Amino acid sequence: MIKRLVPRQYAKFFVVGVGVTLATIALRALLGWLIDDSTLLRYQGTILAAYLFGIVVGIYAHKAFTFSYSERLGVSHFLRFGAVQLIGLLTVTLLAALLREITDAAAPEELSKTLAFMIASLAVSVQTYLLNKRLVFVPAKTTES
Question: Which of 31, 42, 67, 145 is the right S-S partner for 46, CB 3.0 to 4.6 Å?
Answer without folding.
Answer: 31
